[in-house]
Amino acid sequence: MKKFLAMLWMLCFVAVAHAQTGKVEVLWLGQAAFRITTPGGKVIVIDPWLKTNPKTPAQYKDLAGLGKVDLVLVTHGHFDHAADAPELAKLNKVPLYAPPGLKDTFVTLGLLPTELAPGMNKSGVVTPIGPEIKIHMVRAEHSSEFRHKDAVSGKEISHPGGEPVGWIVELENGFKIYHMGDTGLFGDMRLIGELYKPDLVLIPIGGNFTLNPPLAALAVRDMIKPKFAIPMHYGTYPILAGKPEDFSAGLVGASTKVIVMQPGDKTSF
Asked: How buried is 47 (Cβ within 10 angstroms: 0-12 exposed, 13-18 middle, 19+ buried)?
């Protein structure tokens, strides 16, 4: 019994030590899709549009290529954020968190079983993959419709997608990632920055549908003030014309470090 308790204590010690010293890995998959690996080895995928995403590297277009996934998060119902989310959740038998109206649409259309579609709403916090990893749902300023092909008519039909959201992912070592989803500028970005103090912001810069580079720079520089920022949601199509160099130019003199990635790149913190 003593040997068993000693072994159990050692396993717990190793797990805690890994959580304290392990790194956060961020893999960009194109558009707004990211795979985050936590210091303790948990894997969170946000906004998985991969199979038809022209910027997603070939090895990740097969959803199994992502490897083990522990949690799927979706910011809103547009295809370039939600297209592969239900399939990925079912493949890994893991929960999918999304805006309430979108979650209900997934279940109603038979795309996701109820047991993989837990509910929450903005200002909520959940711990589905362990008490040390906190998932916060926050506001975004956008729209959220989910289009799905009707099996009988073959026509694309628009379904409710709830209200768009952003995600604050608070990891075991205290590192906080703010995935903004698709959003325009809104005043409560300042409150989100003050309340959650994110270390890393994943921010759209493409313009037209979201923040453009000058507005994204304003949000980061004057409102959120993270240590790091990774621009996303640009260059996938010509209309998403925002450029990371223009975003960086708006942050000259600010303390935030901009990390420009290419789809398939990984970075660690």
From this structure: buried
